[in-house]
């Protein structure tokens, strides 16, 4: 169609922005210049855009309603945008494109005159050739393909017979790091499996905890200190007395995301769920999606920080502040142990801050100033972790009792494993509920 004729037909109903207050505002177009050549300009569709006409001239003024050196009427949105693409226009930095555009929106015409755009960068031509699904995606993953807002980064309903190894790595190593939990991670069906469309991760007593530990073959770490330990001198004090499991997402991403997990959290003394995002570059830096202690209660001076409390928020697991390990976390107080029932845990991690929900109820909110860990303006690459662990050296502060029984070990004490084992009344609290069950997990890009 001849753009000028069309424009003449529509000029009678052109609505200038001055008179259109409160109505459709033509969005500022997104311009992209490519090297060695190629040019694209686009506006988002809002389902009422019927036509997008672009008229431009390079480094020369364009007068109102002049067709220009290049122009096109775009009548159809592709992947949510009305785009004018010309693969042959050759631009260089600081070239100025003078243009006017015309948009027909819900049967009204809108014209924006006397505009200009200066080429500020030349993007690789591959970005023009690949199907442009969204402009300037904020989301990056290790894979070259880009993601758009609304795309699912991770989605698993655990409905297969086995764990989807494209999505997850099933860990097997000795966690000689971070909070030094009192378990090893093992990839075995007694520990990690799918039952009735549910991911189940369990923990159990290591039968031969004082023997040599050798997690080769199948160890998921390269450094052998995480894979094998020999039975010399104090290993009886140091070797992990329990076995549990952990999945880490293969996909890492740097994005603002919504995370939804329907899960039943573990119950049992000194067991805790590991449901968090972990910074790939700084593994001590976590965003806890759902943390609770497996203990029915965990009390000191009448204050109970046991399983009736759910925690969420950014957390640095290296900060072993025994007085108040969860100083900065959001807390939800439940009438009963959180692990008694299935719940839906959600985290909305957006540019304005982090929001945490249980069963659609908002219980925690962090702006980038309210937490020293919440400055997510410069979000780093993270991965999702689903697992359970036992004990550790910061998550169960000393001086508390669990159902009246003293904590069996002291944080950061070299005899912690021995003491944990010798005062093993915690084992009586472990049952078939001492596992993490996950119905589904979804991570959606925002
Ligand atoms: C993300 O979560 C927020 C807060 O619950 C919600 O308003 C928004 O619609 C969600 N976005 C997506 C893409 O799921
Ligand atoms: C524990 O160690 C004993 C003696 O070395 C061995 O016979 C037994 O098979 C081991 N049990 C397990 C579960 O590894
Ligand atoms: C976490 O805390 C440790 C110990 O205070 C500190 O060295 C480290 O830099 C912190 N990490 C991040 C990502 O803030």
TrEMBL record:
Q: Which residues form the signal peptide?
A: 1-22
Is Signal among the key words of this record? yes
Q: Which GO molecular-function terms appear in the entry?
A: carbohydrate binding; hydrolase activity, hydrolyzing O-glycosyl compounds
Q: Show where the GH16 domain sits.
A: 183-446
User: Is the keyword Signal assigned to this protein?
Assistant: yes
GO annotations under biological process?
carbohydrate metabolic process; innate immune response
Instruction: Report keywords, A-Z.
Output: Immunity, Innate immunity, Signal
Q: Which PROSITE patterns match?
A: CBM39, GH16_2
User: Hey, which family's this protein in?
Assistant: Belongs to the insect beta-1,3-glucan binding protein family.
Q: What is this protein called?
A: Uncharacterized protein
Q: Upper taxonomic classification of the species?
A: Eukaryota, Metazoa, Ecdysozoa, Arthropoda, Hexapoda
